[in-house]
Design goal:
Strand order of the largest sheet: 3-2-1-4-5-11-10
Strand content: 25-35%
CATH class: Alpha Beta
Radius of gyration: 18 Å
Distance between the termini: 33 Å
Number of helices: 8
CATH topology: Rossmann fold
Number of domains: 1
Number of strands: 11
CATH superfamily: Vaccinia Virus protein VP39
CATH architecture: 3-Layer(aba) Sandwich
Helix content: 25-40%
Order of helices and strands: HHEHEHEEHEEEEHEHEHE
């Protein structure tokens, strides 16, 4: 599967994804993953940043509100259309660009930092992406990205629940199966059943890599690992949003920050 195939899948997802994520159904993102990512993020006030795989722009706007001058790049035209419409209505100085993360068309050393919220595991050639990020970062610049945790969310994963329906363990398999474009079909789990029945599930191509592969690709690209994060819902968050309570058993997301030395 190449980048054009990936683009076709994400374009098919973009309309429904935007509508339902903006309606508050992406609970893992809003209640846990994005807040933890922003907490790990160094100060970006006054810096120039690129949000790689920006989608409809929710996370790009969150980083811009921290004082960064942001560009958002995505492979799906519908995501970019929604992001630009929102920027026109509520300007934050963000420039949204249609493009491919595997061939970022900007001059060398253009950005102080790059973010990638849950997008890099959906890119076909992460090694090429990381090398491209190294090229466009200024010396001393950083990349911070989040992915599904390769150890705890490999291609096969199942929550084990007790008699009350609470997650108590996680069963994982196929960790070493570095899939190239395996299609996963799902919808946000909190969408009401009557609405789910009439929706076409998302079609998400996934390019799973082991933790060893991620570290090797980062090092090969000339980047230095600076920080890891494995978000866990607090008891308060898990009570407020029970769907994320399983992250108290094992992490679902991995956050990595690397720097161009």
């Amino acid at each position: 599967m190449d980048a054009s195939d990936v683009a076709a899948h994400w374009e098919s997802n973009a309309e429904i994804w935007t509508i339902y994520s903006r309606a508050g159904y992406d609970k893992y993102r809003d209640a846990l993953n994005t807040p933890a990512f922003l907490e790990l993020l160094p100060s970006v006030a006054g810096l120039t940043g690129l949000d790689l795989g920006c989608g409809e722009g929710t996370n790009t706007r969150a980083v811009a509100r921290l004082g960064a001058r942001m560009t958002g790049l995505d492979i799906a035209p519908t995501f970019i259309r929604y992001a630009r419409e929102t920027e026109a209505q509520d300007p934050l100085g963000i420039d949204y660009v249609l493009g491919d993360g595997q061939s970022i068309d900007v001059p060398e050393a253009s950005f102080d930092f790059v973010t990638a919220f849950m997008s890099m595991m959906d890119m076909a050639d992460q090694r090429q992406v990381l090398m491209g990020i190294h090229r466009i970062l200024k010396p001393g610049g950083f990349l911070q990205f989040s992915v599904l945790h390769p150890c705890f969310v490999p291609p096969t994963r199942r929550n084990i629940r007790d008699q009350n329906g609470e997650a108590v363990a996680v069963q994982v398999a196929d960790y070493f199966d570095e899939t190239d474009g395996r299609i996963e079909r799902w919808l946000f789990s909190e969408i009401p059943a009557e609405e789910r029945a009439r929706l076409t599930p998302f079609s998400v191509p996934r390019f799973h890599r082991t933790l060893t592969s991620w570290v090797s690709m980062i090092v090969e690209a000339g980047l230095m690992i600076e920080a890891f994060g494995e978000p866990m819902a607090s008891q308060e968050v898990a009570l407020a949003e029970p769907v994320v309570a399983d992250t108290r058993v094992a992490p679902i997301f991995l956050h990595i920050r690397v720097r161009k030395t």
